[in-house]
Amino acid sequence: METLHATPSADLLTAALGARDPRAEAQRLLNGRFDARVLEPSPPAVDDGEWFADDPTDPAGAYMPIVGPTGAAALTWTRWLGDYPDQAGWARDRWLAAWRPLTRPPATFAETRSALHRLAVYVLSPARRRVNGKIALRWTLGGLGTPFFGDDEQVRVVGEWLVRQVGEAATALPITTLNQAAATVLGGPPDLEWAAGLDVPPAGDLDERLPVDPAASYWLGDWFGFAYSVLEELRADRESTGGGRVQLWAEHFDASFECLSDAEGRRAGYGMSPGDAAHDQPYAYVVPWQFDGLAASDLWNATAFKGAVLPLGEFVDAPDQRDAVLAFFRERRALLAS
After folding, report:
1. What is the pTM of this model?
2. How many angstroms from the chain centroid is the CA of residue 43?
3. Taking the mean position of all CA atoms in its chain, how far away is CA 134?
4. Distance between CA atoms of 133 and 167, rounded to whole angstroms?
């Protein structure tokens, strides 16, 4: 089985560390025949509205049929690859089609996950928050980062690298300490105050080197890429009524969105976590907003909270991992909607 936590190719790493416009990159492949939609955030920065971020599935502004990551598009990237099979590697790296299977994470994963969680809480999320008050992050090529904000700025993690992009210029530095990362991104110390009182990892020694193993960091990026490919597909289902945005929450360090009616007691969060204090392996989950009153079912199998979990170990060997996770989500959504 091909692993996903190997070092990316030199060309892919060069692209991930440089200044990027993911939608424009995709648009160039379409030869002026379609309008591209991708999973990654793209400039320009959105400076109003509820989300202050672009929506990867929004058809607004399209001037031609859309090629996109979900069935809501006129043409999926999977169908487009039928005519352009030589672009399968490009689509695979961006979690748009031709998906590789996730493997089990490397032994260094838990330590790296904790280190990058701290970096997300005290440096990445504050960079966005100080400009527009928003804290959520997104999956980005090779890792995770902010949507574009302010003067088309983005801060992201790519393996063992911290990238700050402003406009068409990008600077990549090795991840070392929280103090150094904050000096690069925030122009000062880490922001230790905004998350006070939240269930986040302690900042720890700000001058201690963050133990980020590149293989584990790339695996985390692939976990969130997989998560976005699944959650955006689920959000695009017509049954996911009242769906919000898929967001990567710095405080929880997971990707999720909500759908169904809150007034009728059916709304729930659907998400994917790389693991936490209560779960030693990555997992998918469903958390009903109003669990009391739901019909008893063995589908609600979580023990650390009221809801359902699907650990990585239960779908990593599935013939189609995405289908397995989507089936887990859809079965519980149907139960809530009934």
Report:
1. 0.96
2. 17
3. 16
4. 20
